[in-house]
Design goal:
The chain is an alpha+beta fold and 486 residues long. The protein folds into 3 domains: 30-282, Bira Bifunctional Protein, Domain 2 (BirA Bifunctional Protein, domain 2); 292-408, 3-Layer(aba) Sandwich (Rossmann fold), CATH 3.40.50; 412-483, 2-Layer Sandwich (Translation Initiation Factor IF3), CATH 3.30.110. The protein is built from 15 helices and 23 strands. The strands form 5 sheets. Strands 3-7-8-14-11-10-9-22-23-21-20 form an 11-stranded mixed β-sheet, with helices on both faces. β18 (366-371) and β19 form a beta hairpin. α1 packs parallel to α11 and α3 (49-68) packs antiparallel against α7. The chain is globular. It starts with a helix and ends with a strand. Zinc ion (ZN) binds next to loops.
């Protein structure tokens, strides 16, 4: 029995360490914790129920934030006529290499090929043109939850770089630039709220450089973070589209002064990529670690029994499970596995709290509660369990966030010396530095660091008078975050 048990343990557990072979650790974790299933199509993955339930909670949270702010949901078609996609020149230029096309219906070649949406600006805006007549129709604020396809040829990484992913895309229209910009920042605050309060991931808010902004936008703002793999990642973006699309799609309104004017537009989104960030950030060598707010099952109850006391232990355990209904408990009363085996499995799958309960605990009228994040174990009397669980969950949520904040701080190198920048990038750090704001210099920075790029520029900029750009020596104009990224 014991040998058999060890063998099984080996099969279900992760066999490499996170800090030794990050990418193998990530791949094993996704499969062994039953989050992702690979398919025959490279870059396309099954999101299994354990993972999808996390996405549903995130969806719900963000959906509430935007609805309270006045946004409504709708759905637009998956297929975009080629002529629509081509209407805004810089937009199509930015996307064309990764667009997947439908060219045939059965054996018949189609008169106009259809793009599978890489993003929905160009399919939504012909409708917006029809719906907007007067300033009274504005603002128009619509969001959709959907899938998009970007046929990238780089190495796919599940969740982080996949060919099909799920996301929300908000598309809004305003009468003035000021109104649009105010929303850009409001939505960016919602994304920061989502990442920090739900995902327990600290983010850096800022504006993208001209080179890194969204194709077709006047300005792109983003929330970025830095992962234990030594690479930065963009969590979400909020774009000021300006009037580029309004002009291309002829979206105009009659203002109070009876004059016809072009509208101002925004778009903003976050995706299932955030789930990859979540998993990479908090999980450990034993498996998935979830901030409790993202866990649909917050506790697992594992009764410990032998044949002679099975009935009395299970009876009490069942009673406990009923009392803890609000935490959606898993009741693991399987006969064929030992308690130790069950502990490993639920640690792998990231259940925040484990409640162990055996004959001796029954005598003492208590249970043992074990935290997934730090392994701390404590005895809790029966009468206090319902009070104690929410406290432990909240504390775990907070301590994961604090740990992540410390990691981000410790991973950041602030310097204005080019030599130190190169070294920090080699050492897999996030660099906070300054820059001349010239595109040519940005290209050189990328070349000289083997691909590091400017993530964004903080909104609150320091006074850089007299400071020099570390790369080229010209006057520095902007403080930036700079790192290798996904
Ligand atoms: Zn420079």
């Amino acid at each position: 029995m014991a040998n058999n048990e060890d063998e099984k343990k080996e099969q279900i557990g992760i066999t490499v360490k996170k800090d030794e072979d990050f990418s193998e650790w990530y791949t094993q974790l996704l499969q062994k914790a039953e989050l992702i299933e690979y398919t025959e199509v490279s870059g396309c993955y099954v999101l299994r129920p354990r993972l999808y339930s996390i996405w549903e909670i995130a969806q719900n949270y963000f959906d509430n934030l935007i609805k309270k702010d006045g946004v409504t949901n709708a759905y637009f078609p998956l297929f975009i006529p080629e002529s629509y996609l081509q209407r805004e020149a810089s937009h199509i230029k930015g996307f064309s290499p990764e667009v997947a096309w439908v060219t045939h219906a059965g054996q018949t070649k189609m008169a106009e090929k259809l793009a599978i949406r890489p993003t929905s600006e160009t399919i939504m805006y012909p409708s917006y043109k029809k719906w907007i007549r007067s300033y009274k129709d504005l603002p128009l604020r619509i969001n959709q939850w959907c899938n998009v396809v970007r046929w990238e040829f780089k190495n796919p990484v599940p969740l982080l770089r996949s060919r099909e992913f799920l996301w929300q895309e908000g598309h809004t229209v305003f009468a003035t630039k000021e109104g649009a910009w105010e929303e850009v920042l409001q939505i960016l605050d919602f994304y920061a709220d989502l990442f920090e309060n739900l995902y327990a991931i600290p983010v850096l808010k800022g504006i993208k450089s001209e080179k890194e902004k969204f194709a077709g936008a006047d300005a792109t703002t983003s929330v970025e973070t830095f992962l234990p793999s030594g690479k930065a990642i963009q969590g979400a973006t909020s774009h000021l589209l300006g009037q580029n699309f309004a002009k291309a799609f002829d979206i105009t309104y009659t203002d109070k002064d009876e004059k016809k004017k072009h509208a101002w537009q925004n778009s903003w989104g976050f995706s299932t990529r955030s789930l990859g960030m979540l998993i990479m950030f908090h999980s450990d060598d034993k498996g998935l670690v979830l901030p409790p707010r993202l866990a649909s099952n917050k506790v697992v109850v594992v009764p410990i029994f032998f044949e002679k006391n099975k009935d009395v232990v299970l009876k009490k355990a069942k009673e406990l499970v009923r009392q803890l209904e609000e935490f959606n408990p898993i009741f693991d009363n399987r006969d064929e596995y030992t308690p130790g085996w069950k502990y490993n499995e639920w640690e792998l799958k990231g259940i925040p709290l484990r409640i162990e309960f055996g004959p001796r605990d029954l005598e003492k009228k208590q249970v043992m509660i074990v935290r997934r994040d730090n392994g701390k174990k404590e005895a809790v009397p029966f009468k206090d369990i319902k009070k104690k669980i929410p406290l432990l969950l909240e504390d775990m949520q907070k301590s994961l966030f604090n740990k992540a904040k410390k990691f981000l701080k410790d991973s950041t190198a602030e310097t204005t010396s080019w030599k130190e920048i190169e070294k920090a990038i080699k050492d897999k750090k996030l660099v906070k530095t300054i820059w001349c704001e010239e595109a040519e210099c940005e290209d050189l920075m990328k070349d000289r660091t083997d691909g590091a790029k400017i993530l964004n520029m903080p909104f609150k900029q320091p006074d850089l008078k007299g400071e020099k750009c570390p790369q080229c020596g010209k006057p520095a104009k902007k403080q930036i975050y700079f790192a290798k990224s996904y």
